[in-house]
Amino acid sequence: MIYLSGQRPLPQHARAATFDTRWRGLDPDQVYAYLNRLADEMERLHRELTTANTEAERIRQALHQWQSRQSAHRHHSRGSR
User: Fold this and answer.
1) In this structure, are residues 35 and 12 in contact, taking their beta carbons and an 8 Å threshold?
2) Tens-digit pLDDT profile for residues 30-48
3) 36: closest CA among 4, 12, 5?
4) Cα-Cα-Cα-Cα dihedral of 17, 23, 27, 31, to 10°?
5) What is the pLDDT of residue 1?
6) From CA 81, how far away is CA 69, in angstroms rounded?
7) Which UniProt keywords apply (predicted)?
8) 21 partner at 20 to 30 Å CA-CA among 2, 10, 35, 67?
9) Is residue 11 within 8 Å of residue 42, measured between CB atoms?
10) What's the pLDDT score for residue 47?
């Protein structure tokens, strides 16, 4: 059965997809080879997205720490005048 739910497709969905057979249908070997390539690409993109999200979170936290230090430094500098 072709994956039809409203959820995002995942690589394992492409790999597990099945299709009804027809008398003059598509070559199943080609279909499954394509789905495997598609699943591989989905996995690669998912890894890249995870890496990008992790890096973005690291940068967000570093910026927050920097802003906190700057704020504390400014507050401390004003008090010593």
Assistant:
1) no
2) 888 999 999 999 999 999 9
3) 12
4) -20
5) 44
6) 19
7) Cell cycle, Cell division, Coiled coil, Cytoplasm
8) 10
9) yes
10) 96
4 inside domain? no
pTM beyond 0.70: the answer is: no
Length of the chain: 81
Query: Could you give the number of structural domains in the chain?
Result: 1
Q: Does a structural domain hold residue 6?
A: no
Q: What secondary structure, in 3-state letters, does the chain show?
A: CCCCCCCCCCHHHHHHCCCCCCCCCCCHHHHHHHHHHHHHHHHHHHHHHHHHHHHHHHHHHHHHHHHHHHHHHHHHHHHCC
The answer to whether position 57 is within a domain reads: yes
47 in any annotated domain = yes
CA quadruple 55, 57, 60, 64: dihedral sign = negative
pLDDT score, position 4: 54
